[in-house]
Amino acid sequence: MQRTAVVTGAGSGLGRVVGRALLEDGWAVALAGRRPEPLAETAEGFDAALVVPTDVADEESVAALFDAAVTEWGRVDLLVNNAGTFGPSGTPDEIAVADWRATVDTNLTGSFLCARAAFAVMRGQDPQGGRIINNGSISAHVPRPGSAAYTATKHAITGLTRSLSLDGRAYGIACGQIDIGNAATEMTAGIATGARQADGSVRPEPTFDAGHVADAVRYMANLPLDANVQFLTITATTMPFIGRG
To answer: Of 150, 181, 183, 240, which is the active-site residue?
Structure first.
């Protein structure tokens, strides 16, 4: 049976790397993101890729994404909830409420909407079940300075992961979370040149090849549904995470 997946934020960064890795492994993958052109670049060379421009913060757009996947393949076996944004930077009094809400809309509400739609498909399909992998962050554990919006949403992703895991048990739906620290992508390029530390200094931080994240997601995705990686943390070995601050 063809294994089918939905990957959000698939037009760049980790979403592109993960989406292409799954396609290389023989999955059929619906590639979701705001802009069609980068999604088409991710899909290039893969017949089993489905490009679906999507705003994860919009309920109707998310519904259309999963409708497209089910129409194309009849089921969804995997959701990789990857879409996200760093959002505003600053102390809490410097963060505009509109920017806070925009970050929550993408990182948290978007993840919930996609998980909600995936859960409904997985619960109703035959054979029943599937897997949801949420992209958390090192910021699901500890913050960087000036990152209240991003950090709050990533802590919330951990609660969403746990709730999905519990609520999915009766329907064969597994949920796990991957927390990533300093994978080398366009989004983290600045970290390698200089990142603000808890003591106020700015120092470059080590990064690691994003392909290792794809390998970790593949491992999680390829497990049978009676086994689950609940939380997996992968970082650059010497990044300031253990003992941060």
So the answer is: 150
- Which of these, 25, 66, 14, lies nearest to 48 by C-alpha position? 25
Q: What band does 47 get if pLDDT is binned at 50, 70 and 90?
A: very high
Q: How far apart are alpha carbons 198 and 240 in whole angstroms?
A: 10
Q: Is 150 a catalytic residue?
A: yes
| Residue 171 token pair | 């329907």
Q: How far is CA 235 from the centre of its chain?
A: 16
Nearest to 62 by CA among 100, 17, 124, 115: 115
Q: Letter for the amino acid at 115? A: A
Whether the per-residue pLDDT at 187 is higher than 80: the answer is no
Q: For residue 244, what pLDDT is reported?
A: 62
Q: Give the residues across from 81 on adjacent strands.
A: 134
pLDDT tens column, 50-81? 999 999 999 999 999 999 999 999 999 999 99
| End-to-end C-alpha distance for the chain, whole angstroms | 49
- Mean pLDDT over the full length of the chain: 94
- Facing residues of 5 across strands? 29, 78
**86: burial class by Cβ within 10 Å (0-12, 13-18, 19+)?**
middle
